[in-house]
Amino acid sequence: MAVSDPLSPEEALDTPGRQLLYDLVSTPSVSGAEADAAAVLVEFFEAHDREVFVDEAGNVRAPADDAVLLTSHVDTVPGEVPVEIADGDGELGADGPVLWGRGSVDATGPLAAMAAAAVETGVSFAGVVGEETDSRGARHLVADREAPEALINGEPSGWDAVTLGYRGFLAGTYVATSESGHTSRPDPNAVEHAMGWWRRVEDAFEADDYAPVFETVTTKPVGIEGGLSEDGLSMEATMDAQFRVPPSLAPSDVRERADAELDAGTVHWEEPIPPVMGSPRDPVATALRGGIRRAGGDPRLLRKTGTADVNLFAGAWDVPMATYGPGDSDLDHAPDERLPLAAFDRAVEVPRPGAGSPDSVPSSTRHGPDPRRRGRPTRHTDPPMSANTTPSPTDDADEFPSDFLDIDDLAASQLATVLERASALKTGKDLTQLPRTTLAMLFEKPSTRTRASFETGMTQLGGHAMFLGPDDIQLGHGEPPKDTARALSGYADALMVRTFAHENAEILAEHADVPVINGLTDDAHPCQTLADLLTIREAVGDLDEVSAAWVGDGNNVARSFAVGAALAGLDLTVATPDGYGLGNDVYERCAKVGTEPTAVDDPAAAVADADVVYTDVWVSMGEEEAREEKLPAFDGYQVNEALLDGTNAAFMHCLPAHRGEEVTDAVLESERSLVWEQAENRMHAQKGLLVELLA
């Protein structure tokens, strides 16, 4: 098909990378016939004074700095898509040149991006052959060379996404023979044996309707032949079958179950390809996400239902790795396969060193499969590229904190990002972003919402939450908190602590090798503030246009909310009894990130112009002995119908509430009450936080 608004190559191919991409797409490279495309790659590297050769398997190899190996496959599927350059693409939402042609997405686009990035950074490169058939190039590569320190495998993920997982692959040929005979005979013949075996195999691997495809075994017959033998004395049947294997199983498990369904015939199995599922905290994945953010994107994490060369690399090399490359995978092998050149440019840019270099990843962290052993990561560490590169400084505001102990650990932009992420996750978008990730939950204080929201949230994200109650942990008695932090860092990807002394959370964060989240301390409750701000944004409006009032005790919830309000731009008025205010330190923190709250003595004055009125219990957990002494100070601070009369204010409470004390039952159960939305949003806000911290 001819494109509308065509561009000439001279107009569009203004970088060496773009020219390489065009030359490769213009060179047919169907599996088994990749030599011409390999020659194009060789010429490109030679033109940039790089050592390059074609090995025995036909792979193009340009050895250099092995801090990272950039790979992709050279071959494409059959089918001709005329090579043209269009000026924009409304369907893809792309401005500027768009290259049409077979392989522009799978995987010539990623191949050219990896080659161009390798030339710009001075790292090793390998273009492998046979990925669409038997992966002979990848198999030869892992047998012929030592493991690099890290690997980026080029496959289309979209320039703003990183692929962590692929299913494995198992193929076999069923063969059966039976005596020939009249078709009226009741005995099954070879063809019936083949068909019967396949029906039983499909039943054995039948998936739950609600199970994600990635987590199931997909069974596919891809060829069947049968009939009388040449001499007419027997019936013969052969069936070629393929299985996609999820990471929860090994190919040998699938083979064993398929063999168990045989009642006649045999299956000749080919060499399998194992599944792979990387951690979202893998240093290479973390680094690529940092590059995506610097290039202006919002990184996504993907799992793909197919199989790629990275499966073989992961099975052979115990090093950090991830899959990345430009192109919409929905256009793989399609008759309208095409790639916006702006997306290609970003995909070349993303793997470049920016904030860091190989030295930004400590040497002790550059090997080994378990990212929990690699120290606490930051959000913008770069891929370990050439050791000759010079690190450039980053904006600290862009660096997501390693721990979340109070709300002002976040910059205003990061707070907005967490809330946006939470909103998207609440709609069901991009769930299961934390597969095989464990959150250890340490509880010194009892909890309903904190435990349930974190545990359910981790499950929805594809991870696991491990509950450790007061009888399971020894914070400050029996074992120093720093020892608990060090031990649990070896088991979990993050720690959440709900404790009395804020110092315990700080010590855990200081000594843990994984992120630490404050689920509540006597000083702060930042996770509640995230939920509060998400609720206000949903129910009331833009945060910087909202007026809020706090009425009651200046406790941990109030302190975190006040700082969060300043950070988000809310106009906050606080009414607290004498001696029970927020404290000067809170006002100072508010002033650093935004505007100080207004302090008043009269609750009625506080709520007069408020869009939201917020309160909490007057006697917090751990203060029970001071109850009789404390309560008289709060006379007149109850949030009741009389206080809210004449206002349109919504009501908020973090729960549990002491009905009839700080709030009346009538207000709590009224239409203005948002308390149940707040409770649910604990889970969604914390999911947003977990994804930003860990993914």
List the helices and strands and how they pair.
Elements: H1 9-12, H2 16-25, H3 35-47, E1 53-54, E2 60-62, E3 65-73, E4 84-89, E5 94-100, H4 108-121, E6 123-128, H5 136-144, E7 151-154, E8 161-166, E9 168-179, H6 190-204, E10 218-228, E11 234-245, H7 251-259, E12 266-269, E13 276-277, H8 283-294, E14 300-304, H9 309-316, E15 321-324, E16 338-340, H10 341-349, H11 412-426, E17 438-443, H12 449-460, E18 464-468, H13 481-489, E19 494-498, H14 502-511, E20 516-520, H15 526-539, E21 547-551, H16 556-568, E22 571-575, H17 584-593, E23 598-600, H18 603-607, E24 612-615, H19 627-630, H20 641-644, E25 650-653, H21 665-668, H22 675-694
Helix pairs in contact: 2-4, 4-10, 11-22, 12-22, 13-14, 15-16, 15-22, 16-17
Number of helices: 22
- Could you tell me the strand content as a percent range? 15-25%
Terminus-to-terminus distance: 41 Å
Overall mean confidence score, pLDDT: 89
- Largest beta-sheet characterization: 6 strands, mixed
Describe the structure.
With 695 residues, the chain is an alpha/beta fold. It contains 22 helices and 25 strands. It has a six-stranded mixed sheet, sandwiched between helices. The model is unreliable at 354-397 (pLDDT under 50).
Q: How would you briefly describe this protein structure?
A:
This protein is an alpha/beta fold and 695 residues long. Residues 354-397 have low confidence and may be disordered.
